[in-house]
Amino acid sequence: MNNNVSTLIIDGNHLFYRAFEINENKIRAREPGANDLGAVYIALTSIRKRLQQFKFKTAYITWDKPVFKGTHYRYRLTNNSYKMNRPPKQEKFYALLDKTIELCRHLGVRTILPYRLEADDVVAYLTLICEKPCVICTGDNDLLQLLVRDGVSIYNIIKEATITKENILGFYPVTADNVVRYKAIAGDTGDNIKGLKGYGEKTKSVLRVFEDYDTNIKQFNTEQLEKIRLNQKLVSLGYGLVCEDHKDSEIPFIQRQLEEQKDHKPDYNKFFSLAEEYGFDAITNSKGSWKNLVDKERVSNILSEMFKDFGK
Fold first, then answer.
1. Domains recognised in the chain with CATH numbers
2. Alpha-carbon Rg for the chain in angstroms
3. Residue 202 has pLDDT above 90, yes or no
4. Is 48 helix (H, G, I), strand (E, B) or coil?
5. How high is the pLDDT of residue 250?
6. Is 265 left (phi over 0), alpha (psi -120 to 50) or beta?
7. What kind and span of H or E run contains 188?
8. What is the DSSP letter of 31?
9. Is this structure's pTM higher than 0.85?
10. Residue 295: which pLDDT band, with cuts at 50, 70 and 90?
11. In whole angstroms, what is the distance from residue 136 CA to residue 175 CA?
């Protein structure tokens, strides 16, 4: 795996959700010292690991924290059933998420939020405009559809593997250009998107459709085709950015954040002050491993190491 990339995009929400669940298990098991703030610490160490893993020019982190408090087009198209199969998150989830976002900002990571949509939609836009090669750190299969774009790859943090449009079939049932179609037919149980009856994920029936999609799609009746078209809008990470509901707000809001954070700098004093306040001794006792993760000094250090290699 080549870890030299121009742009690194971290799916912060996915990393934090995993950290929160891990920490909740520790609390339920009554592990010594386990407390709510452990979710923040676990998320931070996971984010640091990705920042250390890749050599990049620019790093972004995205979160499911829209600034506009309201539903978006996916709820409208599903009569508000979108994601309604999920139990509501605990209040402390959002409080701890806010603390994690604040700490990441102080580390110097450019934080990009959606206006009304979701973090995945923001990632989709970033991969469209960012310098390539670009790698996305996530464990979310929804983002596999972005592999159709040249220079974009995904580092799956669960499988610890790099997925590209060339090797995707080793990790997913269909090619990158068929991910949206596949999810539209099979549905997405996690998001409460109903697929076609009898064509669930990884069933023989849905896999047969993709043996010759252009021919086999003709087997579906008008009602089924309409369902597929609706689902394609729901699962697509590009549609929401340009549809009538959001085209005048979503992209301009992302662009404004990119411009505002063009020269974003770390504030280590604030970062370590908060770490001390939260009782993160492992951070305050190893400050060196938390500095220069994204700033120019880190790039200089990387170049110095490269020159050392040439001299050997």
1. 7-175+240-289 (3.40.50.1010)
2. 21
3. no
4. helix
5. 97
6. beta
7. strand 187-188
8. -
9. yes
10. low
11. 18
